[in-house]
Every structure is written in C-alpha cells, then in structure tokens.
Amino acid sequence: MRDPGHDDLRQALQALQAALGPHTAADWAAPAGTLDWSCRDTAAHIAHDLIAYAGQLAAAPDDAYLPYDLTVRPDATTTQLLQIITAAGGLLATALAAADPALRAWHWGPCDPSGFAAMGMAETLLHTHDITRTLNPAWQPPADQAALILHRLFPDAPDGAPAAVLLWCTGRGDLPDRPRRTTWTWRAARG
After folding, report:
1. Residues in domain Mycothiol-dependent maleylpyruvate isomerase metal-binding (predicted)?
2. What predicted TM-score, i.e. pTM, was given to this entire model?
C-alpha cells in the first residue's frame, strides 16, 4: 500500500465537510461523543493541528513544535469554523504538495511528509467521528482513507474493516476478541 499525500488529506477534508456541513445549526456546545471537549472545541482542535502540521513542514524544525497556536474567535459561527478547518487543511495540503519527500520535520522524532499527511487525515477523520457521535451517529470514516492512515501510522494494526480497526487503534471502538484500548500512540516519525 502507498503512503498518503496531499490529495488524500483533501479527500479527508471533503469527508469532514460532508459529515458536518449539514449540522451547522445543531448544538455545537454539546460534548463531542465521549470527549471532554465540546463539538466546537473539537472542531477548533482539528484546525489547530492542521495549521501546526503545515508550520512544521514549512519550517522543518528538528527538535520541537513551533511555539504558536491557532485561536478561533468566540464569535465565529459554526459555518465559519468549518471554513477555518478548510483553510488550515488547505495550507497543510499545499505544504505537503510542495515538500520534498526527503524532508524531515519534528513530530516526536523526524517525520516525513507522508507522516504529516497521515496525521492530518487522522486528526480530521477521528475528530469528525467524535463530533458525529453527537450530531450524526451513523457516520464512519471512509474505509479507503482509514486504510491509508492505518498503513502509515499503525503498521501493527490487526486485520479487519479499516474504519473499525482505526477506531479500535485509537480507543474509539471495539473489535471482537480484543480489549478496548485505553492508551495508544501512532508512529509518525521515520528516520
């Protein structure tokens, strides 16, 4: 299986918009599924991570995250919040498209562009899943995108339906004959 790239991130962003766009009038102050964050705070977190990953690729620090944060204004509407996610994701996709495959930037070690693409996809789809537990409970991450994330970030993942395995790998779901995970990490760094 191939590593993910900028087009895969754009597809994840489209999946987010399709899942969340119809629910902008809902109560986004409600908790996002089982998270302590509200749906709104979870959406802001997605945008923050996407812009942070773009910054890491652009500056290529080798020992830490750049010391900045994205702040979403309190008066931003839910529609505007989804636009902010699109903007942040677009910046990451552009950085990914421009990045030399040999580039390494820090994410708990040296991380290549495909790792940042996979992490951007994971943050987008997993937190969309968290939000949809409250707003649209039937939604699942797209199988093809989940498979790319598993391939790149969870190389030791068990066999099974990619969306279900991704949710299990991140403590969000159950798999037969396996205990639910309460802790987990992904492997984005590559030497």
Report:
1. 9-131
2. 0.97
